[in-house]
Structure formats: C-alpha cells, structure tokens
C-alpha cells in the first residue's frame, strides 16, 4: 500500500545554532547590516525547508520569521497603528515589536495556551488595511526554489483569528472587521494561485477556543469569499479539538481541514477530535490533515499516532484523503535532539525534538492500515474504537493524594495575620530579583567553565547578597529580598536541584522575538533532595534584623514552563512538585525565615482553551499551590506574586490561594485589578505594583504617590493602610542598577510621604 501523504504546519524558525537571534541582536546594535540580516534569515529558512523536505515530507509549510508570525501578518496587511506611520521596512517591523522614540511597542500576549508570545494587532478607530505582500511572496518564491513548487505551501494567519486575537479599539463587531480584511486576503490568494502553489494553509487557531462557537456566520462568510479565488485552502485549527464547532467547521468550503488530535500534553481530559469524527463522520471529498504527532511534547510517540490513524481508517476516512502531520506547529519544540550530549542513554530513545518528529511523521505514514470503514460513525462500534485509543492516549492520574491538613493552613488568615510580622502603614518591599549585572553573569560562566571554584563562586554571590541587603536597609525598605544573584532562571534554578527533571544544552524554544528559553523536561517522579534556597536566605538574613523573604517558584509555574510528562497527568506532576517544594518551605522556616514568597506568574496561562475545563484546572492548580504553602506556621507570612494581572475572571481561584500577601503586576492594567479585588471584597494584604519594571524610565515620587492614592481610593481592604503594600510590578533582574536605585528610592520616599499624610 502506498504510504499516506505527509505535511508540516510550522517548524522552528530560529536556526539550528540560534542564528536568527544572533544576527537580529547584532542588527539592533548596528553591528550587522540589513543585507547580512536578510541573508542569514534566508539561509535559516532554506535550511528548515530542506530539512523537512529531505525527511520525506510531501507538503512543507513555508514557515520562517524574523520575529513573530502575527507581526508579519500585521505588516503584510498594513494595519499600522498611527504612532508608527512614516516608518517603513525593517524599521517599521522592529519599531512595532520593540517600540521607538515616542511610540510604545505593540502589546505582547501569550499565543493560545502556549508559552509563545505574539504581537497583538491593534484595530484603531478608523483603521485601514494597506497590504504589502512583497515579503510573503518572496518567501514563497524562495521556498519553491529550494524544495520545488509541488511541495512549498504558503501559510497565513486567517482573518478570523487575526481579528479575534487583535485589540479591537474601534468597537466594531468581528464580522465587520473580518469583512474589511477580506479584499486583501483575496488579492494575496490570487497572487499565490498565480505562483502555482498546491494549496494555502489558513491558520485559524482561535477556532479551538470556546468563543469560536459563536462565530459560525463570520467563518462561513469569510471562507466563502476566500474559496472564491479558487486556490485550494487548508484550514488549520491547532491547539485543541474544535469542540462544538466541528459540524459546521468541517463543512466550510475548504479542500483540507487540519485538526489537532492531541491537545495539551499530560491533560487528564482527552482531546475530542477523534470522538467528534467518530460521532459526526468526516465529510467525503475533503482531505483530513491529521495532527497525530505531538507538536507540543518532547516525548516520542508511544504508539498513539498510528492508533489514531488506524481508527480514522476504521471509521471510514479513505487513506487517500488522510495526511499525517504534527498536532501544532513544531515551533514550540527544540530543533534537534542530536545536539544534546548529556541526555541519559535510557531516556534518549524516548525523546523526539522537531527534527525527530519529522521522522515520526514519515514512519506513521508508512505504517500498515486496517480495513476501511469497519466502524460506521455514530455507532457503538465507533464509540468503542474511540474508547480504546483514549485508553492508550490518556495520561494517568498517579492517585497521589493530599490530605485535608496538607490543603489548609492551620489557622485562617483572620487569626494568623496578627501573629505575623507587623509593619507600619504602606510597608515597602520588592518582588525578588535585582539586576543581573554582566559581572554576575561572568561569575556564573567562569564557575561553569571550572575557572572559578564553587566555594569562590559562593563567596562572590554572598558579596552581591550583602550589597543588596545593605542597599535595601539604607533605603529603608521594610521587607528585604536577597536579590536572586545565584539564579539564571526561576524554573531552571529549582529544577536542577530536584529529582525528576533534566535540562538540555541546546533545547532552545522561541518565547518571543529574539528571546528563547530552554524549558526543562520532567522525566520522572519529582522529589525533594536537599534544601535549595536556604544558604542564600541565611546569608541575607544574617546581615539584617529586618525580615528577608524566602523566595520560591511555585509548582504550577515550574510545571507550565517545563515540558511535562505525558504518561501521568499534569495534576499529578503539580502535586509531586508541590510536595517537594513544601519541604523547601519548611527548610526555610527552620532557618528562621518569617516571610516566604511563592511565585506563580504562570498560574493564569495554564488555563485551558475550553471554558468548561477551567474549573478542573484551577482546582488542582490552586490545590498544588496550597500544598506547597500550608506547611507554614501561622506566624510565617506567605506571599505570592502573579504577573500579567488580568485575572478578574479567576478571582475565586486567587482567593482560594489563601496567600497572606498577594503581589500583582498592575501598571499596565491601570489599577483595574485593584478595583476588581476591592469589588470582590478580597480580604488579605495586597501589593499592587507601583511602577512598570519593563521600562527603563525612573518613576517620580509624585507618580508613585498617585498610584498609592488610587489603590486606597478603590476602598480595598477597607483602606487599612498596613495591609496595602508598596512594591514594583515584578522582579528587577532585567534592569540596571542605574535605574533601579533611583526607582526604589522614589518608591520608598512616596510611601514615606503617604504615611505622613495619614
Ligand atoms: N521572584 C521573581 C523575580 O523577582 C519573580 C519573577 C516573575 O514573577 N516572573 O524575578
Ligand atoms: Zn512578575
């Protein structure tokens, strides 16, 4: 039997040796010319296309970007916010991404439920669309020249997702905005048709969200129009099953429907794509892009992919109309496992990065198939088939149970608060990290290379801690931090000390623009080995009588910023992490720590795309946080910190965290969160950020006083000024001391003046 067709829907864009990062950062520093930048980028893209075609993939997505695919779409459609008008070319592109003199950058937001950030389009009142297709057409031409016309498939962000993921400042309904874009999309399709492309991938990730259920009319209209150009369309909906939209979505006038059969790795509730097909059938005459190779997981396929394909054939989908592909773009994976030299031998065969996933796609396409149509859609036989694949596929709950005592502090906040540190009104603190200076990074590198002994390194780090403590005392800050000079990354630092996690040497994944991260891999049962943060805490606390915060990364954040296991549920992994970190909290307490901060900046971003799964996620995520903290004595103050403060919709969960002090990023949301907390009658200490740490601008005393006044005016905590903390928005590690010192001084001065006004 002929093998099934194969396709890709996106690939790492950063280059095997992070070439794009290197050249872009040099370009920004004016050390590389535009010609050099483009030539490196073209080479990286060509290599990626060659790798995919070379692996044997039939249809290769013409992926590739300097920064972000949404930014490229904004540029291509020419929907340029007024503040950037007058700019052109790369200057325009990078100004929108990074800001320019007098023009703040576009917002950045998490893409779907991944850790990738996209640039948020802005639909200003009266916005217009002045397309420039030169870049995308050039890319498709280069792709055709590299791997052949029959293989090169243009990929574009679809109009519905573009509008729904944009910031709509003009208040127009989705249908109207989409309609405004369609002429540009049609013109593009016409030009691509003229270039002889086999099809065009139209990526509509938004259709995997619950909100898409209300968009049938908008989608029908849009795809009717797009289809009219005659070029075959491949509607790609990744990141989850399409849920309730399935019946109408598969009827849209497209030649190919590409679906995600896997969803989030380690999810307890299985992705429903196979179930939807088993129930409703798949329309004859259309091609099914079967996303069965997990594009979000570094784990090799364990047999689920061929089982899914076999099930599709049994359900009557003709092998000739099935394509094997990844569940989501492979951009979320490191590029090549072969770059790793330190992965344990027994683990290596069980892992697959982007390159290795290509091999899996080909292998699955060649696997033997069962007889077609033995289980008609909608019959009990079909349902049984789904059940048997599901059993193979689903992550198991380890049954790791936590008891009531582990879920609850021994005393409620109202009782325990009085036993904790008592400070003056508007107590001041910071969020944890201080500037990671070139000197600190140099020390770490020298230590890594063996040029600086561990003992000497520790001494140098102690010096930086001492500097931070002295500075904070001199500034009259109330609750001090040690500054985190010993930490590269808030997840890596903990992961390296726990059992059950491994780290890659070159497993870079794009987070945004030129920022790449190396997420750890959870590969076994996570457990506590020995205290992780106690030495640095003890050094800091020994230098001052003021309370120093113990500083931990929470279990949910460690999980959400790692590649999880797929054999056991995320919930089970979160609890394992929580039980390990719980021992760290006890260790800190035993070392005399009176305030422990457990950061959970990634709590919100783990929310599933389907609204009906939120409660399930929040239930175990908050439980994991609680398990970490409840070991604390009533006298110990538990602080948490959340970034991206837009969490009005999960207020119940925030309350259930039961932290004694909640510090939140606030400056970008204009006190909205403080008002929301006040309205919800949130009743524990709150520290809304008084200034934006993402900006090098030093906030004035007056500015910070206005912020504090604004918090008080919300009526939060009944205006109890001892419970309203004054702190920056987030950690300061990306800032320099030159702006950090005056900013913190102004912050303390503002708190002082506010106290005097009481
Ligand atoms: N304690 C961490 C820091 O200050 C918190 C960082 C974060 O929330 N992203 O860097
Ligand atoms: Zn933060």
What small molecules are bound in this structure? Answer: glutamine, zinc ion
Strand content: 5-15%
Rounded mean pLDDT score: 96
How large is the count of helical segments? 26
Number of strands: 22
Radius of gyration: 27 Å
Distance between the termini: 83 Å
> What is the SS-derived class?
alpha/beta
Q: Enumerate the strands of the largest sheet in spatial order, edge to edge or round the barrel.
A: 1-13-12-11-10-9-7
- Residue windows where pLDDT falls under 50 for at least 5 positions: none
Family: Belongs to the vitamin-B12 independent methionine synthase family.
Pathway: Amino-acid biosynthesis; L-methionine biosynthesis via de novo pathway; L-methionine from L-homocysteine (MetE route): step 1/1
Domain Cobalamin-independent methionine synthase MetE N-terminal: 6-301
Catalytic activity: 5-methyltetrahydropteroyltri-L-glutamate + L-homocysteine = tetrahydropteroyltri-L-glutamate + L-methionine
């Amino acid at each position: 039997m002929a093998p099934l067709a194969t396709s890709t829907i996106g690939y790492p864009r950063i280059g095997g040796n992070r070439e794009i990062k290197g050249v872009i950062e040099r370009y920004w520093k004016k050390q590389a010319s535009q010609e050099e930048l483009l030539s490196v980028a073209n080479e990286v893209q060509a290599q990626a296309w060659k790798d995919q075609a070379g692996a044997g993939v039939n249809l290769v997505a013409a992926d590739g970007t300097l920064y972000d695919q949404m930014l490229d779409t904004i540029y291509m459609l020419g929907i340029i916010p007024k503040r950037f008008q007058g700019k052109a070319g790369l200057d325009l592109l990078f100004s929108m991404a990074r800001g320019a003199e007098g023009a703040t950058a576009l917002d950045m937001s998490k893409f779907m439920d991944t850790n990738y950030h996209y640039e948020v389009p802005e639909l200003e009142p009266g916005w217009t669309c002045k397309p420039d297709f030169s870049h995308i057409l050039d890319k498709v031409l280069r792709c055709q020249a590299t791997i052949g016309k029959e293989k090169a498939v243009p990929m574009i962000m679809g109009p519905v997702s573009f509008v729904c993921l944009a910031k709509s400042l003009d208040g127009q309904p989705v249908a109207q905005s989409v309609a405004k874009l369609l002429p540009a999309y049609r013109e593009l399709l016409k030009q691509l048709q003229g270039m002889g492309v086999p099809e065009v991938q139209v990526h509509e990730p938004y259709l995997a969200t619950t909100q898409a259920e209300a968009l049938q009319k908008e989608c029908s209209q849009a795809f009717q129009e797009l289809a009219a150009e005659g070029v075959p369309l491949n509607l790609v909906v990744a990141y989850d099953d399409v849920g309730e939209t399935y019946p109408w979505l598969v009827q849209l006038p497209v030649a190919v429907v590409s679906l995600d059969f896997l969803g989030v790795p380690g999810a307890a509730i299985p992705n429903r794509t196979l179930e939807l097909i088993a129930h409703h059938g798949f329309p004859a005459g259309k091609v099914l892009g079967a996303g069965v190779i997990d594009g979000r997981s570094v784990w090799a396929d364990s047999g689920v992919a061929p089982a899914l394909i076999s099930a599709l054939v049994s359900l009557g989908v003709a092998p000739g109309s099935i394509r094997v592909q990844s569940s989501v773009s492979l951009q979320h994976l490191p590029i090549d496992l072969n770059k790793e030299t330190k992965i344990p031998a027994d683990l290596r065969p069980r892992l697959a990065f982007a390159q290795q996933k290509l091999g899996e796609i080909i292998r699955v396409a060649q696997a033997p198939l069962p007889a077609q149509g033995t289980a008609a859609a909608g019959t009990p036989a079909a349902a049984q088939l789904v059940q048997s694949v599901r059993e193979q596929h689903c992550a198991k709950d380890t049954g790791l149970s936590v008891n009531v005592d582990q879920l609850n502090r021994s005393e409620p906040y109202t009782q325990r608060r009085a036993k904790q540190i008592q400070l003056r009104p508007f107590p001041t603190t910071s969020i944890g990290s201080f500037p990671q200076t070139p000197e600190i990074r140099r020390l770490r590198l020298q230590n890594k290379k063996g040029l600086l002994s561990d003992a000497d390194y520790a001494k140098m780090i102690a010096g930086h801690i001492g500097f931070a403590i002295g500075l904070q005392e001199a500034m009259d800050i109330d609750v001090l931090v040690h500054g985190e000079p010993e930490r590269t990354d808030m997840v890596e630092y903990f992961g390296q000390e726990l059992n059950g996690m491994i780290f890659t040497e070159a497993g870079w994944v794009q987070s945004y623009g030129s920022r790449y991260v190396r997420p750890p891999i959870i590969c076994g049962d996570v457990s506590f080995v020995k205290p992780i943060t106690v030495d640095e805490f003890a050094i800091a606390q020994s230098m001052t009588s003021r309370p120093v915060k113990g500083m931990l990364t929470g279990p949910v954040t460690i999980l959400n910023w790692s590649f999880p296991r797929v054999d056991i549920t995320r919930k089970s992994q979160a609890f394992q992490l929580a039980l390990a970190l719980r021992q760290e909290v006890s260790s800190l307490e035993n070392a005399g720590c009176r305030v422990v901060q457990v950061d959970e900046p990634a709590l919100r971003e783990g929310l599933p795309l389907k609204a009906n799964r939120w409660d399930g996620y929040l239930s175990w995520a908050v439980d994991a946080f609680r398990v970490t903290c409840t070991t604390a004595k009533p006298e110990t103050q538990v602080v948490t910190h959340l970034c991206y403060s837009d969490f009005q919709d999960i207020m119940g969960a925030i309350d259930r965290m039961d932290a004694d002090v909640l510090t939140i990023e606030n400056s970008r949301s204009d006190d909205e969160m403080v008002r929301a907390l006040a309205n919800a009658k949130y009743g524990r200490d709150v520290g809304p950020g008084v200034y934006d740490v993402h900006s090098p601008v030093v906030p004035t005393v007056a500015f910070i006083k206005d912020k504090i006044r604004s918090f008080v005016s919300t009526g939060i905590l009944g205006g109890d000024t001892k419970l309203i903390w004054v702190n920056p928005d987030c950690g300061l590690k990306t800032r320099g001391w030159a702006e950090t010192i005056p900013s913190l001084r102004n912050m303390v001065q503002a708190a002082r003046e506010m106290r005097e006004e009481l």
